[in-house]
Each structure stands twice: as C-alpha cells, then as structure tokens.
Write a structure and sequence with these properties.
With about 325 residues, the protein is of the alpha/beta class. It has helices at about 20-30, 55-70, 85-90, 175-185, 200-210, 275-280, 290-295, 295-315, and strands at about 1-5, 20, 45, 75-80, 95-100, 115-120, 135-140, 150, 160-165, 170, 195-200, 215-225, 225, 240, 245, 255, 260, 270, 320-325. Bound molecules: S-adenosylmethionine (SAM). The site of S-adenosylmethionine (SAM) has 23 residues, from strand 5. S-adenosylmethionine binds near residues 80, 119 and 121. It comes from Barrientosiimonas endolithica.
C-alpha cells in the first residue's frame, strides 16, 4: 500500500496492557475499528486496486486473465475495500459473476449486479461456502490479519509484546506453544535481544479457512511479504493514517499492518507481481512516435498504459508484491 487521504477522530483508547494480536483485532475490527470508518482504506492509502492511475485496470486484467486460464466465471474478492477491484472487473467483463466480502455494508457505488457479503474481520470469515467454482482473490487482506508480536528477551527467549492504548509497549508472557513451534519452523531466532517477529500462524489459519470455503477453483493471496531467507530482523508492524506512515498505536485511528510470511502459507505456486504481469502479457510496447501525429489520443493512452505497467511492476515497489496461488 502507499499513502493518501483524510484523518478521522480516534475512538476512546483502552488503558490496559494487551498482547498486540488482541489490541490489533479490536483496533481494526472492533465496533469503532479503523476498517469500519466510512472513508474506507482509500481514505488513507493507495493500493494496486485504487489510487494509482492505470494500475487498478492492470490488476483487474491480471485477475480476469487468471480466471480465464482456469475456466472460472465467478470472482470473489475477500477484503474488497469499497469494491474498487470489483467495479473494474465488471467494466472489463460484464459477464463475470462478482462477489465482494468485507466488514462494512455493501458500498453504495457498487452496481447491483455485484453480490456482497459482510464479514466479521481479521482471521474470521463469514459462512461463505462457494458451491460453484470461483477465483477467490484476497488483495492486501492477510497483512491486516492480526498476529502475535514477539521479542527476544535478554535470556534469548521469545516473549509476547504487550501494548497499551497509547502504543507504549512492554514484554509479557512466553508465546503459546503452537506459536513457538511456528517460530521454530519458520522464523528462527536471530539470537539478539530486541529482535522481533510477527507469528504467522494466525495468517496461515485464516488462509486455510478461506481455502476450505472454496469447493473448486483458484485461491489467490496478493500481499507484501517475506520468505525465510529474508525475514525482517525487527518485524514489520507499522501503521498508516491520512496518507502517512505513523507510529503503530492500537486506538482505531490508523491501519495496522505487517508483511506476510508467504512461504508458510500452504500453496502451489508463488511469484512476484512483476513476474506474473510479465507472464500474463500485460505489458505494452512503447507507442511509435508517428502515432502521436496520426492519433494523439491513442498515443497518450498508450503512454499512460505503459507508465501504469511500469508502476505496477517496479522493483522495489508494487512489483515486489507476492502472488500466492492455490488450486482447490
Ligand atoms: C488493506 S485493505 C485492502 C483493500 C483492497 N483489497 C485494496 O487492495 O485496496 C484490507 C481490507 O481487508 C478487509 N478485511 C479485513 N479482514 C477481513 C475479513 N475477515 N473478511 C473480509 N474483509 C476483511 C478490511 O476491512 C479492508 O477493507
């Protein structure tokens, strides 16, 4: 995501110490949670789905072409924001069946032909059993599924990081056995006191339950992430508000996000956005200069398409996003 937008007033803040995972869930999906705010994600940051000229169209073409490759005519967007990607998919191919899933009521701007399901938020999904085959895409969902945040103490043991409503932190208990097992398997201790990690078990579980909802099709997670060889030594928990990256405070006034351990999600294939868009042939050639004279509008459109492709595949940048694919 990249930043942009207006800031709402924060709700009242809790005064007790809580493990990050619990405070994070409440801050984003509680009654006054950040993602229930009327301005939606686009009020605070841009993603490939919205806010970057031409990139939303490319994202829609990528999703539509994956659906076509797999013979799928139904696309379900989990964590659909305000339906930006769905709207573009409809413009591209009005014959596609489309369903959006998010924590808010159906967005007013969305056409009646798009179905909408309300979700509890975070790792929890609504009863979605999809009987017909579908391509299910979750674009920037897993990074906002809360995870336990842990830190190595002076004795070299992982401890849960607890947080107060104003963002002050302290070390708490040892993580649950299952979380320690996840860390051993996927995020080996770097041995230095102060090193941090976000435990990906909750994301793995959320991904599993999404895949279980699909009877046949392709499930796709698109997110920024890391692999075992490139874990961030101090984790990646951060926050966005009003167009800026800000301190992570679980008071409902900002997004809270951390990169996804993409290699721990059960999947068939993963590749970077830059590679996938190339593979799908979404790039366009530089328009011939003659076109500028014969058809200036077409020339400008071709230039815009080319710069959108460059933005969507830039590395470092949006081209680094991981596409994690699982056939069901
Ligand atoms: C970072 S925003 C991404 C929005 C959009 N996909 C995009 O890329 O612009 C994350 C979205 O996931 C939604 N979300 C979080 N947990 C969810 C869940 N369990 N079910 C459905 N949507 C969820 C949030 O409400 C929010 O709209």
């Amino acid at each position: 995501m990249t930043s942009g937008g207006t800031a709402p007033a924060p709700p009242s803040t809790p005064s007790t110490w809580r493990p990050w995972e619990i405070a994070w869930q409440e801050a984003l999906y509680g009654r006054a949670g950040f993602y229930r705010r009327p301005e939606g994600p686009a009020g605070h940051f841009a993603t490939s789905a919205q806010g970057i000229p031409g990139v939303g169209e490319l994202l829609a073409r990528a999703v539509a072409s994956l659906a076509a490759r797999h013979g799928l005519r139904h696309v379900v967007d989990v964590g659909a924001g305000r339906g930006e990607l769905l709207g573009r998919l409809h413009d591209l191919d009005p014959g596609l069946a489309l369903t959006g899933v998010d924590v808010v009521e159906r967005p007013c701007a969305l056409g009646e032909s798009v179905a909408w399901v309300r979700s509890p938020g975070g790792p929890d999904l609504p009863g979605l059993p999809l009987r017909e085959p579908a391509l299910v895409v979750a674009h920037e969902w897993l990074d906002v599924v809360p995870a336990p945040v842990v830190e190595l103490d002076e004795r070299g043991s992982w401890r849960l990081v607890e947080v107060a409503g104003d963002g002050t932190e302290r070390l708490g208990d040892a993580p649950a056995e299952a979380d320690l097992a996840w860390l051993t398997a996927h995020w080996p201790s770097p041995g230095e006191a102060g090193a941090r990690a976000e435990v990906g078990r909750a994301r793995d579980g959320a991904w599993e339950s999404l895949c279980r909802n699909v009877s046949r099709g392709l499930v796709v997670a698109v997110d920024y992430g890391h692999e075992r060889s490139s874990r961030p030594p101090f984790g990646s928990l951060t926050a966005f508000r009003d167009g800026h990256e800000v301190a992570a405070v679980p008071d409902g006034s900002c997004d809270l996000t951390a990169h996804v351990a993409v290699d721990s999600l059960a999947h068939d294939r993963r590749l970077r956005q830059a590679d996938l868009f190339g593979e799908l042939g979404l790039g366009t050639a530089t328009p011939a200069y003659d076109l500028a004279r014969s058809d200036p509008q077409a020339y400008l459109r071709a230039l815009a398409a080319r710069s959108a492709f460059a933005a969507a595949t830039a590395r470092p940048g949006l081209g680094d996003f991981w596409w994690v694919l699982r056939e069901v």
